[in-house]
């Protein structure tokens, strides 16, 4: 099996592909982490973000949603100055903003996971791509979720970011059908 090729760049990308990408997660903290990292990626490569992932975890207390929701502007500025994260202040402030909005969603749906997974009736979408070039950058689902998240005041949640996010948390399995990690090959 030839499998997915996008992760062949380095060992860290391969580890992410093999152990996390397209694996269903229902853990709000992990889902928040992926939303934050996907937002940080806007305009950059995933490799760049993965290289900074440990610094993000330190800076944002392992993506503790309550902690992040209470960050002050001064604390966010300290994160920008003292951690090896992407220095875009709007992306850093979006972590706090999105944590606040997730807490509101948790009140309404019980969890952020429930809110997201109900869009697909709690069952992953399994695609059967032969070539990576066939994989879309956004779909009707990512557009729908993006629109609702924006309505709820989330930041850095455009339909392309959301599609990558859906892959990251396993709501969508976009492994190539020839990849040993594709759901149908397990």
UniProtKB/TrEMBL annotation:
Name of this protein: DNA-3-methyladenine glycosylase 1
Membrane spanning stretches: none
An annotated GO BP: base-excision repair
Residue ranges of coiled coil: none
Binding positions (Zn(2+)): 4, 17, 175, 179
Pfam family, one: Adenine_glyco
GO molecular function: DNA-3-methyladenine glycosylase activity; metal ion binding
Keyword field: Glycosidase, Hydrolase, Metal-binding, Zinc
Entry-linked InterPro entries: Adenine_glyco, DNA-3mA_glycosylase, DNA_glycosylase
EC number annotated for this UniProt entry: 3.2.2.20
Gene designation per UniProt: tag
């Amino acid at each position: 099996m030839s499998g997915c090729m996008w992760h062949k760049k380095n060992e860290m990308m391969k580890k992410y592909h093999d152990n996390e990408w397209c694996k269903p997660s229902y853990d709000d903290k992990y889902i928040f982490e992926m939303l934050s990292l996907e937002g940080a990626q806007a305009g950059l490569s995933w490799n760049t973000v993965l290289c900074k992932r440990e610094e993000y975890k330190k800076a944002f207390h392992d993506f503790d949603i309550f902690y992040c929701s209470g960050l002050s502007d001064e604390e966010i500025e300290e994160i920008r100055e003292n951690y090896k994260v992407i220095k875009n202040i709007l992306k850093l402030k979006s972590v706090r903003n999105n944590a606040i909005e997730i807490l509101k969603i948790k009140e309404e749906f019980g969890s952020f996971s429930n809110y997201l997974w109900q869009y697909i009736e709690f069952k992953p979408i399994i695609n059967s791509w032969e070539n990576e070039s066939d994989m879309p950058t956004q779909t009707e689902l990512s557009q729908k979720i993006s629109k609702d998240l924006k309505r709820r005041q989330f930041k850095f949640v455009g339909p392309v970011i959301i599609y990558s996010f859906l892959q990251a948390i396993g709501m969508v399995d976009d492994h190539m059908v020839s990849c040993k990690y594709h759901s149908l090959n397990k």
